[in-house]
Amino acid sequence: MNRGLKGYERAIGILTPLGLLLLWEAAGRLGLIDVRFFPPPSSIVHQIGVLIASGELLDNTLASLRRLALGMLLGGVPALLLGLAMGISRPLRVAIDPLISATYPIPKSAILPLVLLIFGLGELSKVVMVALGAFYPIVINTMVGVVNLDRIYLDVGHNFRASRWQVFRTIALPGALPSIMAGIKLAAGMGLILIAISEMVASNDGIGFMIWNAWQVLTVDTMYVGLLVIAILGFVFSIVLDEIERRLIPWKTNA
């Protein structure tokens, strides 16, 4: 019964966007919408073929993915370690949590000029922007995951005279994994947003550059291709991270 329900839900999830695309196509062909600003899906698909044939789409996508991967590593690894340490150590949490609470609400796109001023217009500035966006969701979710652990597990570790490293590796990290994965998913989405913004401002390649350049020359189809690529990447990241979560956290049950 559960399998049938999941199949039904999967079918609904596929048919709903397809239905919307068909309505969009029909509205464009019937003249109900201005195709100069909302080109029909068939026109966008044709433009995808053109960009693939020229190699432009693949080159820009790979450039963005490279920056995104480097930024996730640069921001995610320190955030994971710091979040675990803050969750285990109350004094460290008391010292650092106010700093995170104060700086987290600052829009990351608003500090792009400062990042460009410090790191220049090269690759590093784009990577740093992604790192900043990834850092906060991961460190906050990791810390919350450790803090919300049942204290009995930590007490058992202390009773068996486990070292800090053993507590860190065998109790804090596994126990906080569900929260950590939630933070990584948020970080991936934020990374996609920030890499597109930074590439629009200071880059000669990437999906963001492609969208901005298309706006400058009024190639609306290409703009939609860029937006579609970002949406597809977000969807693929979600599926991959869900699968990783399922393998890392087999005891977690999904509603």
TrEMBL record:
**Membrane topology designation:** Multi-pass membrane protein
Provide a GO CC annotation, any one.
plasma membrane
- Entry's localization field: Cell membrane
SUPFAM superfamilies documented for this protein: MetI-like
The chain positions of domain ABC transmembrane type-1 read 57-241
Pfam (any one): BPD_transp_1
List membrane-spanning regions. Answer: 12-32, 68-87, 99-121, 127-149, 170-197, 217-241
The source organism is Rhodopseudomonas palustris (strain BisB18)
Q: What is this protein called?
A: Binding-protein-dependent transport systems inner membrane component
Swiss-Prot/TrEMBL GO biological process terms: cellular response to sulfur starvation; transmembrane transport
Q: What keyword terms does UniProt attach to this protein? A: Cell membrane, Membrane, Transmembrane, Transmembrane helix, Transport
PANTHER family linked to this entry: ALKANE SULFONATE ABC TRANSPORTER-RELATED, MEMBRANE SUBUNIT, TAURINE TRANSPORT SYSTEM PERMEASE PROTEIN TAUC
Per the record, the similarity remark reads: Belongs to the binding-protein-dependent transport system permease family.
Q: Which domain of life is it from?
A: Bacteria
Mind telling me which InterPro entries this protein's record contains? MetI-like (IPR000515), MetI-like_sf (IPR035906)
